[in-house]
Fold this sequence. Notes:
Number of strands: 0
Radius of gyration: 33 Å
Shape: elongated
Strand content: under 5%
Structural class: mainly alpha
Largest sheet: none
Helix content: over 70%
Amino acid sequence: xxxxxxxxxxxxxxxxxxxxxxxxxxxxxxxxxxxxxxxxxxxxxxxxxxxxxxxxxxxxxxxxxxxxxxxxxxxxxxxxxxxxxxxxxxxxxxxxxxxxxxxxxxxxxxxxxxxxxxxxxxxxxxxxxxxxxxxxxxxxxxxxxxxxxxxxxxxxxxxxxxxxxxxxxxxxxxxxxxxxxxxxxxxxxxxxxxxxxxxxxxxxxxxxxxxxx
Length: 213
């Protein structure tokens, strides 16, 4: 006589605890069908959004890196009109790109060619740079711009941030010496140029120091 008892969908030798968990899960899914479907759709949407923004970011990096390369090439060819156009394009289309700092750096170089660079131009670049060494170089250039504008107190103030741990310490000292000379503080200028003569590894700065002693 055949057994008419309904067979379970799982084999008899399956672990009872595992079988219980499977039926509990099945029962939960059945009772919360709308919640499960909604959650699944949400997960799919989030995954899709993640890959979309990842693709957008890759496109942004690729396009902005190309523009930064074109800026460099145009600057090397002294096609300053094209450099200006490319920098404007970068600012308009990819202001958040990490390559924006390249555009800002060339913007400073472009203005330097026509003596139009300002400390504010450097500030815009510095907020995007994490390197203390690079910022020390930019601070020296900022001090030089203040020096050219006869704002000597600002020059000295900005140069205070450049000490011996920075690569440009000696050149910053040289600028400090010239600043004291402009202020007619000859004793301080002589002391600075003596330091330059003692510390410099390069003949250029030694010659500059000797000429001002």
